[in-house]
Design a protein that fits this description.
The protein is an alpha/beta fold and about 450 residues long. It has helices spanning about 10-15, 20-40, 50-65, 105-115, 150-160, 175-180, 215-225, 270-285, 300-315, 315-320, 330-340, 345-365, 395-405, 405-410, 440-450, and strands at about 45, 75-80, 115-120, 165-170, 185, 205-210, 255-260, 290, 370-375, 385-390, 395, 415-420, 430-435. It has an eleven-stranded mixed sheet with strand order 1-3-2-4-6-5-12-13-9-7-8, sandwiched between helices. It has a domain at about 5-250: Alpha-Beta Complex (Amidase signature (AS) enzymes), CATH 3.90.1300. Helix 8 (about 270-285) links the parallel strand 7 (about 255-260) and strand 8. Helix content is about 40%, strand content about 15%. It comes from Streptomyces griseicoloratus. One of its GO terms (molecular function) is catalytic activity.
């Protein structure tokens, strides 16, 4: 196994044991970027020289006994919505061509303090307003979409061009590309990870979280990221414990809710079969499977779009009026549509969200975790605009990919996407675990237990 193939946890263990140096690890990842990036397009920019300097400094710290923790010396990629002082934050848009960040975002500063080594900024669907990230190719099939909007981050982790990465998630943008590329994606509880210094899509739906190779890796990253920041009005005072899950696979006494409605409607047969196999695996570990009814499903799509569209348009109000031609057509149309939405629709969406949060609170008294597909279909061919279901109905790709992710953004509950196999075309399938607010330890425990029963996942072949 090459160093670039190591999980975060294994790399950290090797660095701590001094059987692997940060320089060796970073050099291996940079060599992998040089080999794979021309075929993938995951990165907006690669910061190779800065990464090598940081790796040498980390190596000196480790040799002197100044190990800062499990992230020290480990290569990291950041979605290019996340500010790093002195670097461009392009949001993968011509609108930001001349932008330079004046200061680090909270998450970038926390990861730097933990010793992580930034190797580059990754592509997003323009301003995170889409589910495909068209600049980037799927790590398992270059002719298919990467998923979005954190497509670059997910592809980098899947292909070994970053050991871990950060993404943002407003309607599924961490979980969707993670599922489509066979990696782990965690959308934390709303407010658990601060968003100061992160370009917003929709302030009341935006989250920042890790994309990793394993559930344990996600826990390590979350421990470094979580904590209050007064500069983010939504930031929670509670920062939570060390989230690293223990090794036991015993889930006795845990209730896992299996939706009887919504989450298995219009889902590809191979996706449903893989998720139900994973559920059977959790049951074999002692978990109790209980059927649950997902509340207010008829309002999910309208509430998601009713919140996101006007908030996004408000953020882009000035540039939409002064340089509309610099936006890609799909994003410009959505932003312009937001100008046509009446205030009453936005207020009704806010009221629906309040009712939905209350209903999900009651739902999560019946089960400790809800388990379901992350996305209803695997990665579509690049350029495909619709998915046709077996009953003959069609759905836009964006609507399909956001459909199963949106409830966690509307309600703010944590959600974890875990790989649960591949379809017959070799494309990854993800299972989504949803929990109570600040219930990340339970989600990570369940995901980790499942993962321990499966063969080690391989790095995507490029």
């Amino acid at each position: 196994m090459q160093p670039y193939e190591l999980s975060l946890a294994r790399a950290a263990d090797a660095i701590r044991a001094r059987t692997l140096s940060p320089v060796e690890l970073v050099d291996s990842v940079l060599d992998r970027i040089e080999q794979a990036e021309p075929h993938l397009g995951a990165y907006v920019t690669v910061t190779a020289e800065q990464a090598r300097r940081a790796a040498r400094a980390a190596e000196q710290d480790v040799a002197a006994g100044r190990l800062r923790g499990p992230l020290h010396g480990v290569p990291l990629a950041l979605k290019d919505l996340i500010d790093v002082a002195g670097a461009a934050t392009t949001a993968s848009s011509r609108v930001r061509a001349d932008h330079r960040a004046q200061a680090d975002s909270t998450v970038a500063a926390r990861l730097a303090a933990a010793g992580a080594v930034l190797v580059g900024k990754t592509h997003t669907h323009e301003f995170a307003y889409g589910l495909t990230t068209p600049q980037t190719h799927n790590a398992w099939d270059r002719d298919r979409v990467a998923g979005g909007s954190s497509g670059g981050s997910a592809v980098a982790v899947a292909a070994g061009t970053a050991t871990f990465a950060l993404g943002t998630d407003t309607g599924g943008s961490i979980r969707v590309p993670s599922a489509l590329n066979g990696v782990v994606g965690l959308k934390p509880t709303y407010g658990l990870v601060p968003r100061h210094g992160v370009t917003s899509l929709s302030w009341s739906l935006d989250h920042v979280g890790p994309i990793t190779r394993t559930v344990e890796d996600a826990a390590l990253a979350l421990t470094a990221l979580a904590g209050h920041d007064p500069r983010d009005p939504a930031s929670l005072a509670a920062c939570g414990p060390d989230h690293r899950p223990v090794g036991a696979t015993d889930l006795t006494g845990l209730r896992i809710g299996v939706p009887r409605n919504y989450y298995f409607d219009h889902v590809a047969p191979e996706v449903e079969a893989a998720v139900r196999r994973a559920l059977a695996g959790l049951e074999s570990l002692g978990a109790q499977l209980v059927e649950v009814e997902i509340p207010m499903t008829r309002y999910i799509q309208a509430t998601q779009w009713g919140l996101m569209v006007p908030e996004a348009t408000a953020y882009h109000e000035r540039t939409l009026r002064t340089v509309p031609e610099l936006y890609q057509a799909d994003v410009r149309i959505l932003l312009e549509a937001g100008e046509l939405m009446p205030a009453g629709d936005y207020l009704r969406a806010q009221r629906a969200r309040t009712l939905m949060r209350q209903a999900w609170g009651r739902l999560l008294e019946e089960a400790d975790v809800i388990a379901a597909p992350t996305v209803p279909a695997t990665a579509v061919k690049a350029g495909d605009e619709t998915i046709t279901w077996p009953d003959g109905t069609t759905e836009s790709v964006s609507d399909a990919y956001v459909r199963l992710s949106a409830p966690a953004n509307i309600t703010g509950v944590p959600a974890l996407s875990v790989p649960v196999g591949h379809d017959t075309a070799g494309l990854p399938i993800g299972m989504q675990l949803l929990g109570r607010p600040l219930g990340e330890p339970v989600l990570l425990r369940v995901g980790h237990a499942y993962e321990q029963t499966q063969p080690a996942r391989r790095t995507a072949t490029v």
